[in-house]
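Format notes (please read before filing issues)

Several people have asked whether sequences and structure tokens are stored in separate files. They are not. Every record keeps both together, in the order shown below: the sequence lines, then the token lines. Line labels are part of the format and must not be stripped during preprocessing.
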Amino acid sequence: MPLAVYILGLSVFALGTSEFMLSGLLPPLADDMNVSIPTAGLLISAFAIGMVIGAPLLAVATLRLPRRATLIALISAFGLGQVLGALAPTYEVLFASRVISAFACAGFWAVGASVAIAMVPFDARARAMAVMIGGLSIANVVGVPAGAFLGEHLGWRSAFWAVGAASAIALVGVATLIPRIPPAAEKPLLRRELTIYRDRQVWLAIVVTALAGGAVFCAFSYLAPLLTDVAGLDSGWVPTVLGLFGVGALIGTAIGGRYADAHLFTVMISGITASAVLLALLALTASNPVAVVTLTFLLGVSAFYTAPALNARMFNIAAAAPTLAGATVTAAFNSGNTAGPWLGGVMIDADFGFASTAWAGSAMAVAAIGLGVLSLRHHRKAGSRIVAGSGPAEKAPVRVPSDAESV
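Then the structure lines:
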């Protein structure tokens, strides 16, 4: 695996910490901003919305720009967004800072993923994505618990300052250690890349990814109040439990990245099924602190075990448009990360309680399973197929690796 892929993974650590850390900061942030916890939870959705919109927009805007210079500009903008969040005097300014940061984060993900995929062989794509997703896992192991700890002892704003500092370190790494990426022999054409959206498999992959991500975030976004108000744990436990989720995420990423290239559908469907079961169990045992802590760890494993397969699936079926494929899968994940917290907030506002967010998440996962099976059926029928967007100017048809028979 090229060194540059690991540098991208380390940069994603800063991005992931900012994206996920509000799960451990909602109670103090809501108190300081004088808003309800569901309203504070919309800040998570704001980041996700920014990712959904920003990923395709920035992918298109930077399509013909030098890759390394684009990454430098985006990580710089992201760091400035963190500073704005730390200084935000009102909820509205904080909301805006989250959208700005999300745009930069989305662009970095889309461009960074296409760079990572371009530097590895076809049969190593899931492993390359696992390295980048590993940055998110480390963010959950270290960054998110550290943010919760800082929020508990130094105020929630200190977590934003810490991510700003991490972004500055990432900027140095990108500027000095990522090599200049040679331009493509053939200039990318937006019109040709847009043809991936004619493929129904692309749209199935988008919806499955969104539902799988949203299922976990529906419950995870409100994990702090679930731990304290329902399970009865002291607030000091929140960073520890978030850290356990991150450890599970790291384990899941390693396992999923190892097997997804050869057994893509097996990893994808089994991982989402595990998440559906774990979320249902979390809802049933929400008042038992031991069960909640254990299930949170296992949920981290199942969610991130699935992620490399979901990413690789999109790049496989949209190989003719790698930049838009990266943007599309980023937007898909964050569509789920928008819908999940929103649905969880609706359940809470309807007085169903914090545990109901896990029931709603489980329902989203069940829907993802059904569409994943439908995608597998189409894949079996297609067999050896030309990836979306291929035409006479493309190389010979690429066979998408299939484990359909083993599912």
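For reference, the curators noted about this record: DSSP finds 15 helices and no strands in the chain. The CA atoms of residues 66 and 183 lie 7 Å apart.
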